[in-house]
Amino acid sequence: MRVQIDETRLFVISDLHLGNPSSTARSRVVPFLDHALDVRANICINGDGFDLAQTSFPRLAGDAVPVLGRLRKLQESGLRVYYVVGNHDMALEHFLSDLVFTELAPFLNVRSGGRRIRVEHGHLYDPWFVRVPRIYDAGTKLIGHALTIVPDIYSTYARVERRIDSWRSERSGTVSADPYHGAAERLAERGFDAMIFGHTHNAETVDLGGATYLNSGNWMRSNSYVDIDEGAVSLRRWDP
Fold it and tell me: Would the pTM count as exceeding 0.90?
């Protein structure tokens, strides 16, 4: 397993949830990968590219096959394809390692243009996932049913969680501590210039004072990604 990589141009996408009945990623990510091929950008899928928690095998295969075909085309052209494991695809880890990915890892430390960039899915900073994993797992299965009503309930959950945190902070008079921003600040103290997470489905860029936190958002219903270009890191949206 290699987690230290050097890249000039790298696109980071996350949370495609291929196979999930509510995901529309397949129809948009295939032309996006063609765009990456045209501009010669390597690809990193930053977790939850495939959704084993809320799918059936036929649905997963139907979504995955065309995407894997495009990823293989990128590799055959000399480009690299990285996969960072998330919480919805952990059970597929050994299966994924035999597919088209250049590297399969829990995180990546990217050197680009003289800058250090950390890429990881971010689920290990989710308080519910860490503190009560069994309840989190049961909740994930229940949320699968709610997706028919709220197509991307994950981003809604993250926004509600932040509002509750803000409300508690106002009542207690303390400073709000977003767990993902806090984790990014700790990584910045270790010398990283930028930190890229996924997991929350909410695309954002946050200035941490000398370092930058970015969330690549999701492709379940959206189209955001992070572009690393010779050390410059920016949040973008794919508009074909």
Answer: no
